[in-house]
Amino acid sequence: MDRALFVYNPLSGDRTIPTRLDYLINRFQQNNILLQPYRLTKNEPDKLPHILAENDFAFFLVSGGDGTLNSVLNILLKNGLNKPIGLLPFGTCNDFARSLNLPVNLNECLNVIFSGKTVDVDAGLINEERFFFSTCAGGLFVDVSFKTHDELKKNFGPFAYYLKALSEVAHMKCFPLKIETEAETIEENVLLFLILNGTHGGGFANLIKDADISDGLMDIVLIKNCAHIDLANLFFRVLSRESLNDKNVTILKSRTCKISGSSEVLLSVDGEKGPALPINVRFINKALKVFVK
Q1: For 142-195, how does the pLDDT look when each residue is reduced to its tens digit (9 = 90+)?
Q2: Peptide bond connecting 158 to the previous residue in cis, omega within 30 degrees of 0
Q3: Could you tell me which residue ranges the DAGKc domain spans (predicted)?
Q4: Which of 1, 41, 136, 277 is deepest in the core (most CB within 10 A)?
């Protein structure tokens, strides 16, 4: 019988996963897989590296949002573990899973895993020390995910982020940014920059409609300094899944980049607080295997 490690965040999304543990264990046993649960707990030493060192698992199952996924996958990659990853995308923000077109129904998610089909996907690496899998962003709105109250996220989901973001538009400030890629160098006053791995990012759908999560390339989106009304119009266009083709938006593709600016600019990495500028980013092609439809 194969063994799989199930790492879950009990506070993610609507917090129902802990009530489904028996169902999960039974489904895996029916498929001749012994599931070992591991509960992530805040403010306690993480025993996950020790468990990984002491055990051999056929694959890993992770439940939570992009932030939970980031912390778990960083541990796996830093320990050289390239076993397949199964996702239960039940956090507030699930951009990585959405970019892979994964279902949000528990039963359908399990069927994806039991089908055994995997795809190799890219990962970004910041300053040679921290991986990200969906988005690295800086500037306006980026602190929304870690400033929004947990109860708001539980009750309103991603909409809580949008409400918080709209409340900050009136206080928006641009900042000078320098972006150096393999092909060009750009210096611009911007409100926001995003480095994306897939089609979805920052809780928004299809930001880069032709993005390929397995091509080894990052998409860099720059939102230039603009009037409040122009930014609001752009915000609602993104919510409506319209194209980012706009005079106030620049989009670049690259395998590597260096981004320089004030160290006071806030950065977010997969929805969690990130490092200060400057940062060096490179994309690792096909860094991990994920179960897909």
Answers
A1: 766 655 555 545 444 554 555 555 666 666 789 999 999 999 999 999 999 999
A2: no
A3: 1-129
A4: 136
Residue 8 near residue 18 (C-beta atoms within 8 A): yes
Q: Are residues 65 and 171 in the same domain?
A: no
- Could you tell me if residue 291 is inside a domain? no
- pLDDT, greater one: 157 or 43: 43
Distances (CA, A) of 154 to 92, 98, 151, 288: 7, 19, 5, 29
CATH of the domain at 8: 3.40.50.10330
Domain range enclosing 32: 2-122
Q: Among the three residues 80, 106, 122, which one is the final residue of a domain in this structure? A: 122
Entry pTM? 0.90
| Residue 124: CB atoms within 10 Å | 23
